[in-house]
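DEPOSITED CHAIN:
***
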Amino acid sequence: MSDRLPVNSAPSIAMTIKLTEAEFEEQLHAAGQKELQFDPFDKQDITWKHSARIAQGWLREIWLREGIYLKVEQCQHIDYVTISRPLDKQLHSVGCRFLLSGNTQVRTAYALGESLLSHSTGQYHIISSGTEGLCFEDYDIDFSLVQFALHPKILHSFATSLQGELPKQLQHLIRPMEQNITRQARYIHPKMSMVLQQILHCPYRGMVKRAYLESKVIELAALVLDHEVTIQQGEAKKSFLKPEQIERVYYAKEILLRDLDNPPSLEELARQVGLNDFLLKQGFHQVFGTTVFGELRSHRLEIAKQLLAEQDISVAEIAEKVGYGSSRALARAFKNKFGISPKSYQKACR
């Protein structure tokens, strides 16, 4: 998928509830702890319920071990919300926030200037300390996210040098810096999406859950850092398509997803949009970060997931609607992508 930001993705902040970080935490504590406890066997797995004055929803915090933290949040605010958080020049952690639904906007004021990051559904960005200032986080009315944080010593423990030094391409994430931190939203890649779903649908409790979630956080961090190294090395290829060719790639996606049960062949799709096979395939890699039929498969599974959650119909009927030849084929692909079987997901949504 492309790292191109969608136009007008930032949430409007008219009629906005403004909170300091302390006020935000106060409303969580006042609403009552552990009302939606996910794992009563783990005292380091805490769920906070939002105050009804502010929102409906919850925030789950899991301290997996010293230096590894995981947060999952689902929220429906009564209005748009802005939270102001002070930034600390002393480094505390490096992390990543994945927005699964909704929109956020992060405005950071530094001594030397300001930065703005718009963050929409299906995107992530790296969070790192290293400068003084004030951060304003604007949240859409409805949103859900997953976030992890790692202490720098965790990252250093994976370093290959005898001195424990990180690769040069990653050192900018953890060293204290006087200059502004540049943040850029990037699209969640399919492999990241699969790990995120496995985190959300963890089937374990207690010690086994902690081991499972820690492994998934490390796996997710590896995927993010690998992408960051690629970008810092300048290996991320720049656009080689002309603007009109990019528009044809978007049109090809539109045609591809019109009829999930009977999509066009690669050759037919290329002919319809006026590109040759090579340009169409390369265009999908450049714009969407996947293959033509990888995009089709992903869309089929997202539609199947939506139907499972919203309609009381069989897995076989859903398989037919989204273009899978059998319920078994759908079940195999669904579990590979989301880490849970279609029947189990449908049952969990009821």
About this structure: The chain has two domains: 16-232, 243-349. Confidence is low (pLDDT under 50) at residues 1-14, 177-182.
